[in-house]
Design a protein that fits this description.
Strand content: 15-25%
CATH topology of the largest domain: Rossmann fold
Radius of gyration: 28 Å
Largest sheet: 6 strands, mixed
Structural class: alpha/beta
CATH superfamily of the largest domain: P-loop containing nucleotide triphosphate hydrolases
CATH class of the largest domain: Alpha Beta
Number of helices: 18
Shape: globular
Helix content: 25-40%
Number of strands: 23
Distance between the termini: 55 Å
CATH architecture of the largest domain: 3-Layer(aba) Sandwich
Length: 604
């Protein structure tokens, strides 16, 4: 049965700075659509989403949203200047009876609604903007990189929420696992053209390769035809001149067609140069721990890192992943224990905060001002892996146009800033690479290339990431930090960690399988104060009463809201959504009570 259109774009054309972004673009988003919007960084994904949301006006064409429907757009940089707290911003425009929606989203996305706007980080502001959109529950959600600044647990919560919603949504994301689970159709922006396939992201790469292969075949045939016609033009044009003029014009048209074809953008010319080999033992940590005030970041922990290891650090935001890496590299001293660094280490760091980039510097100055890249006496060259190279040429290797060389860093998109950081990182040699959230904002093709480069890198890699697919493809060991200072080592990547940990309920971390000799397990808390429960199960048993109480309070609020006898007649959409939310909360309460009883019996 055909679904009704929710949003229609007809003959959209848009130009920025003389270059067309879209020409004669038409597309439809239908009710219930779950669409991945994909394309290279700079291809116009965010711009197209803003056109859909009505925030960018096209030069020509029409954008029509079905009468009575609402479209919600998640802002990348929301303006919170008129609000005192993140909660005030997220609740703005909602009836008081629906404030519970913000509380539910805040819990799942892990931000404090009472946090003052003045002290909130960029990530907290983005999470508040996402909570605001989810709470408003529009018929169409436009989500531009919603997983940025979310940890893996929050991404899982968002996946579950979007998987259960009846609303349509369009997603831009670099997170393959997120897109694979949630999408059923794909919009692909490529050189100003938007194609649609009625399959989710899982089928995208095969589709892309088939389209590009067909293009290459057609271009090859066109070139052969032009060559044959050109030979005829030279050898046979003197005979029967009058009749042949049409063929001459046809040859000119073929050449014009070839000239008008837009070549695909190549991949960035990224490469890593290994410094002289480090010692076999890269880092050895014994009994290291860290606290800040009354908060325990890390309990006594042992880790031995050998040359060539690829170790991923995972866990919630704030669990201490970056602090642990800074202790391992000697940047931060542990409160207890020792860290011994191996010999001949040359460390290169990719900073998740993009702190190495000054927003007011030009791209040119960002490279030439780096002492390790400066070439004495040559202001137009940089040192790249021991060889001088022209600044513009090196920027082109990372897909920047010559016109961008003198542009300020603040004008770049998130993906372009990530590529500029990679350009600085990859200009120098190293044998220990620290990557703190390198995947944020990078497109799929660049992520593929980065994975391949890491696979060929001779050195050691320490990786912090919330991208489950990337961890699976890069890491051979995973260190899980799950709060309370507890860190446990698992063999393999994210999927291996989940399989060893167990996914149905709290993990029995103390019973995790033994690890390879080169990466010994962290010490477990001694004793067993609660019968047969592991450390994590005891912690879960302590927190479940508060979770049950919160669920009961939300159920009470929803029940009160639904008790209005006029609600079904006056606001049927709100009645339906509240009924669905009540059912979800009741199911969650039943599960939490069952889990509490099971753990209580085991503890007894």
């Amino acid at each position: 049965m055909a679904r009704a259109p929710l949003l229609q774009l007809t003959d959209i054309s848009l130009t920025f700075g003389g270059d067309p972004i879209f020409q004669d673009l038409s597309l439809t988003v239908q009710q219930g659509d779950r669409v991945a919007l994909v394309g290279r960084n700079g291809s116009g994904k965010s711009t197209l989403m803003k056109v859909m949301a009505g925030l960018v006006e096209a030069d020509r064409g029409e954008v029509v949203l079905t009468a009575g429907a609402h479209a919600g757009y998640m802002e990348q940089d929301p303006d919170l200047s008129d609000f005192r707290t993140l909660g005030e911003f997220a609740r703005d425009g909602l009836p008081e009876a629906e404030f519970y929606r913000v509380e539910m989203a805040a819990e799942g996305l892990k931000f404090d609604p009472d946090c003052p706007v003045a002290t909130a980080s960029g990530g907290e502001r983005r999470r508040a903007a996402l909570a605001r959109l989810l709470a408003q529950a529009p018929e169409l959600m436009l989500l531009d990189e919603p997983t940025n600044h979310l940890d893996i647990q929050a991404i899982g919560w968002l996946e579950d929420h979007l998987n259960q919603t009846r609303a349509a949504y369009v997603l831009i994301s670099h997170d393959r696992a997120f897109l694979r689970r949630l999408t059923r159709a794909t919009l692909w922006i490529d050189r100003g053209q938007v194609r649609r396939q009625e399959k989710g992201f899982e089928a995208f790469e095969d589709w892309r390769e088939a389209v590009w292969s067909a293009e290459d075949d057609a271009r090859h045939k066109l070139n052969r035809k032009i060559k044959a016609e050109g030979r005829w033009a030279v050898e046979g044009i003197s005979a029967r001149r009058k009749r042949n003029q049409g063929r001459v014009r046809a040859l000119a048209a073929l050449r014009a067609e070839r000239a008008s074809q837009i070549r695909r953008q190549g991949t960035a010319a990224m490469a890593l140069a290994s410094a002289p080999q480090s010692g076999k033992r890269v880092i050895e940590a014994k009994g290291i721990s860290k606290t800040f005030g009354d908060r325990t970041i890390l309990k006594p922990f042992d880790l031995q890192i050998q040359r060539g290891d690829r170790i991923a650090f995972v866990g919630p935001n704030g669990a201490g992943k970056t602090t642990l890496i800074r202790m391992l590299t000697g940047e931060v001293a542990p409160d207890e224990g020792t860290v011994t660094l191996g010999t001949n280490l040359e460390i290169a760091v990719f900073d998740q905060a993009r702190a190495a980039l000054s927003p007011d510097q030009t791209l040119w100055d960002s490279l030439t001002a780096d002492p390790e890249m400066r070439v004495s006496g040559r202001a137009d060259q940089v040192m790249v892996r021991g060889q001088p190279k022209h600044v513009v040429g090196y920027l082109k290797d990372f897909l920047f146009d010559e016109s961008q060389a003198r542009a300020p860093v603040r004008s770049l998109s998130g993906g372009e800033k990530a590529r500029l950081l990679l350009a600085r990182l990859m200009a120098r040699s190293s044998n220990l690479l620290v990557l703190d959230e390198p995947t944020n904002d990078l497109d799929v093709e660049t992520l593929d290339l980065l994975q391949d480069i890491l696979g060929e890198y001779d050195g050691t890699v320490l990786l912090v990431s919330h991208d489950r697919d990337f961890i699976d493809r890069v890491a051979d060991t995973t260190v899980a930090m799950e709060g309370d200072g507890h860190a446990v080592i698992y063999a393999g990547g994210w999927s291996d960690y989940r399989a060893q940990r167990g996914t149905d309920g709290p993990a029995a971390i103390a019973n995790a399988p033994a690890k390879p000799a080169s990466v010994p397990r962290a010490a477990e808390p001694s004793g067993n104060a609660s019968g047969g429960l592991s450390f994590t199960q005891r912690h879960r048993l302590q927190e479940l009463p508060a979770i049950i109480a919160r669920l009961e309070a939300e159920i009470a609020k929803l029940s009160e809201f639904l008790s209005d006898p006029e609600l079904f007649q006056t606001a049927p959409a709100r009645f339906r959504k509240a009924t669905e939310a009540l059912s979800e909360r009741q199911a969650a309460l039943h599960a939490a009570e069952h889990e509490w009883l099971t753990l209580e019996e085991k503890a007894g």
